[in-house]
Amino acid sequence: MDLASVIGLTLGVILILSAIAMGGSVNIFFDIPSVLITMGGTFAGILINYSLSDIFGLIKVVKNAFINKLPEPLEVIEQMVELSEIARKEGFLALESVDLRIKDKFLAQGVQFIVDHYEPENVREMLETDIAFLQKRHALGQRILATMASLAPAFGMIGTLIGLIQMLKNLDSPDKIGPGMAVALLTSLYGALWANLICNPLAGKLEMRSEQEVFVKLLMVEGLLAIQDGESPRLIREKLYRFLAPKKREEPPDPGQVHGVDQSESEDSLYESITA
């Protein structure tokens, strides 16, 4: 669970409701016609702009903003090192038993390519194609949220115009001026909140998540290709460390140790770290 997203959303709602409550009753800020115009109009707009499958797919993509399942880059690097040790000690076929225990489908697929003796250029091409289409799927979710962020204030303004028309039409009926003014102001409020508290922040978080996931997968690609090329575990570690900012790099473990475990136990360590 990504605490930053949960805390930020919860804090934003609490602060806004608290500020409203300090100035009077919260109930006056709830208006069904305003909700129908702003939220209903926004939803209708994205239905026109995107397909149903794209919209339903957004739910799965948005979960990435609240659920963080990505491994740390340093963990991925050590996994690559441990895989290379197994391959050097027991051969590529030994990776097949490891492949059955790897939960990350992308990494498992890459390991299987090596076991099946695919050419390195084919391995890179297929894995990078997976990454490219992953980016497209994530970008689609970001575009839908960005569209919602632009539509919500626009429909809020439409609601404001509707409310003003209703108010001006009923100037001779003072009891009807209040509801018209409520629609006029609350639709703009709802549109601004929906865009700036929900849609834009979620789009930004999804963009960051996408960059992190692509980075982790690129680490896996380079590590797998290095393993296939027969490079030493130490060289693979040093090569993959180049992907990290200097302050995030750690001193490589002693040659006889991996995560504090003897190399004779490295295969068990790999199983535990990947299936954790």
Q: Could you characterize the architecture of this molecule?
A:
This protein has 2 domains: 1-30; 46-146 and 199-276, no CATH class. A hairpin with a 2-residue loop joins strand 1 and strand 2 (261-262). A two-stranded antiparallel ribbon has the order 1-2. It starts with a helix and ends with a helix. It is elongated, with a radius of gyration of 27 Å. Helix 4 (73-90) runs parallel beside helix 8 (174-228) and helix 4 (73-90) packs antiparallel against helix 9 (233-241). With 276 residues, the chain is mostly helical. The protein has helices at residues 3-23, 32-49, 52-62, 73-90, 95-99, 105-115, 120-169, 174-228, 233-241, 266-275, and strands spanning 257-258, 261-262.
Structure summary:
The chain contains ten helices and two strands; from the N terminus they run αααααααααββα. The protein has 276 residues and is an all-alpha fold. Helix 1 runs antiparallel to helix 8 (174-228) and helix 4 runs antiparallel to helix 10.
Low-confidence stretches: 253-276
Helical content class: over 70%
Distance between the termini: 16 Å
SSE run: HHHHHHHHHEEH
Q: Kindly name the structural category.
A: mainly alpha
Overall spatial form: elongated
**What share of the residues does DSSP label as strand, in percent?**
under 5%
Write down how many β-strands occur, each being a DSSP E stretch of 2 or more residues.
2
**Number of folding domains?**
2
Average pLDDT rating: 83
What would you report as the Rg, rounded to the nearest angstrom?
A: 27 Å
Main sheet summary: 2 strands, antiparallel
* Helix segment tally: 10
Order of strands side by side in the largest beta sheet?
1-2
